[in-house]
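INSTRUCTION: Work out how this chain folds

Token vocabulary: learned, describes local backbone geometry

RECORD BEGINS BELOW THIS LINE
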Amino acid sequence: MRQIVILLVVLALISCKKELRNTKLSGQVFGTFYEVTYSSEMNYKKQFDSLFYVINTSLSTYQTNSDISKLNRNEDVEIDKHFKIVFDASKVIYRETEGAFDPTIGAVVNAWDFGPEGKIEHLDSLKIDSLMLSVGLDKVKRIQNKIIKPIETFLDFNSIAKGYAVDVIANFLTSQQVENYLVNIGGELNTKGINVEKNNGWKVGVENPNFDGTQSLSRTLVLSNEAMATSGTYRKFKIDKDGNRYAHIIDTKTGYPSKTNLLSISVIASDCKTADAYSTGFKTMGIDKVKAFLKLHPELKVFLIFENENHELETLALNGFPE
């Protein structure tokens, strides 16, 4: 009888022990995909969609009635908290990178029109010089809920807004007492805790810069309580008559496409908006400037993939970017 009781207790304990499982939600947003994996049975898809809608309404240059589109038409707008956070963060990174990261370069990027042909067309230097007069985030001010800018200045936060959206979803999950999650929007990531199904940190990868459009990984790593963003120059570029490859990133100092051997920049930071913005700013700085910059910023971990003089791919991990 005693053996039967013990057996029943063991079976009860086994049946009560629930297998740890993740919830995975995915969809389309900001012209790309999102995938959120988290350790809760709650379905937060409606809340995610609501947050995406609010961010788009504030920061999307693709929506004609968004706050940023209205500002670019010089309409009177009271900005929301999302705009304030992104604007203030952009100001800091603009100053830190000495203008390499500059959300006012959008009008010049549009003028170059990196289309599917991949050829560099002649763009009148007078036109570029004229557009560059309106470039510089230092020309734009925030006074409480108002943005003051020159009439010609065009704001575009696409190089930080996606990372910020990742943080918004991550912060929402934290507010719901979710202890473990991986938020992924178009390859921009924020992580907390572990993958409960694997009982380990979140395994993620850095893609190889394949010009033929195929996908393969250069490196895999495990993240926990960190964010990562990757910017590449290999999917969209132009080639001049001498065979030089120019990235779709426009040099914020000259207004011309950046000739660069940097093909992929991955940045790990405490939040994704910071990682996203720095990965963009580093594109025009070049390897030596990035290395010098990172000596003063040990909080940023960086992984570079670049083309050497022999047109071979090389990698460089800086500030303890994980193996």
Observations:
- The longest strand covers residues 262-269.
